[in-house]
């Protein structure tokens, strides 16, 4: 899967869970997660937090993971 296809999957998950895309969030090293062959859901949990735990997710987004 190309990086662009992978990012579309990341954004589908984020938009479905929290209503925001990766572009709406603080910068994260998505490229390294893709290069490390993490699946999109694993990358989101690794770089930010579990999007099902909205409170922790948003705290990490606001104050850094």
Descriptive notes:
- The chain is an all-alpha fold and 65 residues long.
- The protein has one domain (3-63).
- The protein has helices at 3-18, 30-35, 40-47, 54-63.
- Helix 1 crosses helix 3.
- The termini are far apart.
- The mean pLDDT is 88.
Question: How would you briefly describe this protein structure?
Answer:
With 65 residues, the protein is mainly α. Helices cover 62% and strands 0% of the residues.
Portion in helices: 55-70%
**Residue fraction in strands:** under 5%
In total, how many beta strands?
A: 0
Give the biggest sheet. Answer: none
Which oligomeric form is depicted?
A: single chain
Secondary structure tally, helices: 4
Beginning-to-end CA distance, first to last residue: 27 Å
Shape: globular
Count of discrete domains: 1
- Residue-averaged pLDDT: 88
Order of helices and strands: HHHH
Please tell me how large the radius of gyration is. 11 Å
**Low-pLDDT regions:** none
Structure class: mainly alpha
């Amino acid at each position: 899967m190309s990086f662009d296809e992978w990012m579309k999957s990341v954004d589908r998950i984020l938009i479905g869970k929290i209503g925001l895309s990766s572009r709406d969030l603080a910068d994260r090293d998505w490229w390294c997660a893709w290069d490390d062959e993490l699946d999109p859901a694993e990358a989101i949990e690794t770089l930010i937090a579990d999007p099902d735990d909205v409170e922790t997710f948003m705290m990490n987004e606001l104050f850094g993971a």
